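Priority: medium. Attachment 1 of 2:
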């Protein structure tokens, strides 16, 4: 499966950010580069399920699309509201969860589901609801935590027993929930009747790099971002990625 074209280093990467912000910038930059070709023609009906405080939603609304964020957290929705007002764009915020999407059959041109499938309960059922909310030809952007990277992180921290237990585990672990492999994700998407069109790794090196290096080395964050763009679509580096980003389409039009 082809990956999205590697994009230019984008997103914030100034020297005044904390390491967690820098990792956020890497995620946003790589995901945005893949999403951009899908949001060039406005206006689209876009739903960001579990969209939280609306970082991506506001960015997409600024391109002229009709964007709705559905999230169970009233605090996140209040922050979304402030963010949208500050940016001078309209984003509809609705309190709800993945199940609420079932009321929106075949109504969206693009659905974002980033960092939500991990805590959704039954992933196959969630995928069916996500697929059902798309119009024919509509696209789904799915961002999930990858299991291989979590195994590597535990092993590198000396937690060998935890790494071993996680190897083949499809059970949720703590607040992080379920982690997926690329094969599992592709199977879920195909099972929901969607065609996967691109798959990339996100945060391939970002979580392995010591935060102090990004703090002290001038230009390190921008260089890391450039490297992340370059490796995102290379399958040989995919198992290292903390997150997998898959784009899929509903058949027809
Ligand atoms: C890790 S955050 C991701 C936020 C945003 N999508 C992003 O990528 O930055 C997970 C979000 O999913 C929301 N959430 C949790 N359970 C959910 C569910 N069952 N359905 C929809 N959203 C949910 C949380 O309130 C939170 O805003």
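Attachment 2 of 2:
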């Amino acid at each position: 499966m082809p990956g999205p074209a590697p994009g230019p280093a984008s997103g914030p990467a100034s020297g005044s950010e904390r390491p967690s912000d820098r990792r956020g910038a890497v995620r946003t930059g790589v995901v945005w580069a893949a999403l951009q070709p899908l949001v060039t023609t406005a206006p689209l009906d876009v739903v960001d399920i579990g969209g939280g405080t609306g970082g991506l939603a506001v960015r997409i609304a600024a391109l002229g699309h009709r964007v709705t964020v559905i999230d169970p957290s009233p605090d996140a929705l209040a922050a979304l509201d402030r963010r949208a007002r500050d940016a001078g764009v309209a984003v509809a915020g609705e309190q709800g969860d993945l199940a609420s999407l079932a009321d929106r059959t075949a109504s969206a041109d693009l659905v974002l589901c980033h960092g939500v499938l991990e805590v959704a309960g039954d992933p196959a059922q969630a995928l069916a609801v996500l697929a059902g909310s798309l119009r024919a030809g509509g696209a789904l952007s799915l961002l999930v935590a990858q299991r291989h990277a979590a195994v590597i992180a535990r092993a590198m921290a000396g937690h060998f027993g935890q790494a071993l237990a996680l190897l083949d585990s499809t059970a949720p672990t703590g607040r992080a929930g379920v982690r997926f492999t690329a094969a599992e994700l592709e199977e879920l998407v195909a099972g929901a009747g969607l065609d996967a069109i691109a798959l990339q790794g996100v945060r391939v090196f970002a979580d392995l790099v010591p935060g102090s290096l990004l703090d002290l080395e001038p230009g390190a964050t921008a260089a890391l971002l450039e490297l992340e763009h370059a490796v995102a679509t290379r399958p040989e580096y995919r198992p290292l990625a903390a997150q997998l980003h898959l784009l899929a389409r509903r058949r027809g039009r």
